[in-house]
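Q: Could you predict the 3D structure of Cysteinyl leukotriene receptor 2?
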Amino acid sequence: MNASFPGLHRNTSCLDPSNVDNFKRLFYPTAYILIFILGLTGHSISVCVFLSQWRSQKSFTPVSMLMVNLLVSDLMLVCSLPLRLTYYVLNSHWPFGHIACQIILYVYYLNMYSSVYFLVALNVFRYLALVWPYLYLRVQTHSVSGIICGLIWGLMGLACSPLLFAKKKSHDEGSTRCLELAHDAVDKLLLINNVTFPVGFVVPLMIVIFCSIFVAKNLLRPSPALGRTRPCRKKACALVIISLGIFLVCFLPYHIVRTIFLITERQIKMNEYKESCGYILAVRKAAVITHCLCTSNSCLDPVLFFFVGENSRSTFVRWTGGRKSSGAAGRNQQQEELHVLQK
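A: Sure. Here are the predicted structure tokens for Cysteinyl leukotriene receptor 2:
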């Protein structure tokens, strides 16, 4: 929700949107190119691994189904980055039409909040497997995981649907604006933010922290089966570390700065701001930086898949010329994980 306000207080140089626009045109293309290359590479490898597993198993486990949906969500965002990159390379001019602009905005927020809840689902599954194994045995079915994925896509798609009906962006000196919102939308955006901040971030973060604490407590507890289950315990530990890392590095700064940014812009709109010019410019630049940090979550999810996905590391090892494990060994390992960690 990065907004610039053409024509707003142009008599005050520090409030001139062109100051931040120049920063955007430098920072966004650099970040988008890096995220696109890393994201496309990671997701291409992940898709190949999934296809390889599908050919050998002809089905996905419930956890793998959640991972597939998470990667599909990320891939949607990664594929939209070249259009965003083009916009800033063309000096904030959108040549692709109003419908494409609406879809790009929709895809971004759909990806972000669906990724949040797919991560929540993965952490809840792991929590149930370690703490409530018998309950997990009843819910770790394809029908339950399919319903969960459908609910996440449906609810997040519905919640983000107002972006598909946004007003057509104005023209500024012959350029069509897309990824920036007019100042008359700040009040509405602040109201939406007051809902999405707790529902789309705070509640999911609390669930992930709750699950992580109990998973970590279980992992630290001495177990007579520790030697036999070291690989699956490592996957549980990797899920805790990577999930919390994505929330704290990608999502937390973005949501905090977005709230401060919208409050500041509303004060500017109402001519009620009391902060210095340096503060206002710092908030606007921080909004750009944290937006890119949030976008970078699409690069980290393939890392999550590599360390947590079932048989993903062994598949990658075989591709790189490592020792090929037998099918029986793979099945024995999966049975061991099911009985001991209930994965």
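Q: Anything worth pointing out?
A: The radius of gyration is 22 Å.
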